[in-house]
């Protein structure tokens, strides 16, 4: 099935917000590129999961944005939510480090599952700057159009009056800072990527999770139950 069959079928308000983007020349070229890639190579995630971050976190529900780089590059890992993997999949190193920081920050027990859908359902948009990747090749789909698409999403959220926490991990994510314009309304948190290559350069000890909940509480919004990962079993493809 064509990528086009999944654009405009997110099934919430994102369809309306992003309709104009799906019709622009850059996205049409991106679609053509992806059609060729999926036909001739192993690409992650599966087509039907590309927009899962948007499906599980409608725009009016977004309280927190966690912005990563691109999907996991190993078989069975990427399923459309940044840093998340399905139940039963070995927890990747970056997510393991995120869990370690949660333990440091709020003394949360390390989960046995890497499925973060429970965060997404609470209003945490788990978005990568690039939404697809070739198997085994990080950053293989950069500068193909995804960055323009995710720029638009961050710009839309950053211009809202609704107090929102933007958590930017790594240089790819840091590039979106310029689109977060309502700086007096929002909380911007930046650190190195939780990858083992950079985690000791400032990710450990960043306390982004406790800072997020402090901000949400101070703005009259329900805090995120980060420990929800330990409390329920989540299953999506």
Helical amount among residues, as a percent range?
25-40%
How large a portion of the residues is in β-strands, by DSSP E? 5-15%
Radius of gyration: 17 Å
Q: What general form does the structure show?
A: globular
Lateral strand order in the biggest sheet: 3-2-5-6
What are the low-pLDDT stretches, counting only 5+ consecutive residues below 50? none
| Number of helical stretches of at least 4 residues | 9
Count of individual beta strands = 6
Order of helices and strands: HHEHEHHEEHEHEHH
The biggest beta sheet is recorded as:
4 strands, parallel
> How far is it from the N-terminal to the C-terminal residue, by CA?
17 Å
Mean pLDDT: 93
Structural class: alpha/beta
Characterize the structure shown.
It is built from 9 helices and 6 strands. The protein is of the alpha/beta class. The mean pLDDT is 93.
């Amino acid at each position: 099935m064509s990528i086009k069959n999944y654009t405009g079928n997110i099934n919430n308000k994102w369809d309306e917000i992003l309709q104009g983007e799906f019709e622009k020349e850059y996205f049409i070229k991106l679609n053509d590129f992806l059609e060729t890639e999926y036909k001739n190579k192993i690409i992650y995630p599966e087509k039907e999961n590309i927009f899962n971050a948007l499906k599980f976190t409608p725009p009016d529900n977004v309280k927190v944005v966690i912005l990563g780089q691109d999907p996991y590059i190993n078989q069975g890992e990427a399923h459309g939510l940044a840093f998340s993997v399905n139940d039963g999949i070995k927890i990747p190193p970056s997510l393991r480090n995120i869990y370690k920081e949660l333990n440091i920050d709020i003394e949360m027990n390390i989960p046995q599952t890497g499925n973060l859908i429970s965060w997404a359902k609470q209003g945490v948009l788990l978005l990568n700057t690039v939404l697809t990747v070739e198997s085994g090749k990080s950053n293989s789909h950069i500068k193909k159009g995804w960055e323009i698409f995710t720029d638009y999403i961050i710009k839309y959220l950053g211009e809202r009056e609704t107090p929102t926490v933007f958590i930017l991990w790594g240089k790819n994510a840091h590039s979106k800072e310029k689109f977060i314009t309502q700086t007096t309304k929002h909380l911007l948190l930046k650190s190195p990527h939780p990858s083992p290559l950079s985690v000791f350069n400032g990710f450990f000890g960043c306390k982004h999770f406790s800072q997020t909940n402090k901000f949400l509480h101070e703005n009259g919004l329900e805090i995120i139950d980060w420990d929800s990962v330990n409390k329920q079993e989540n299953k999506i493809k």
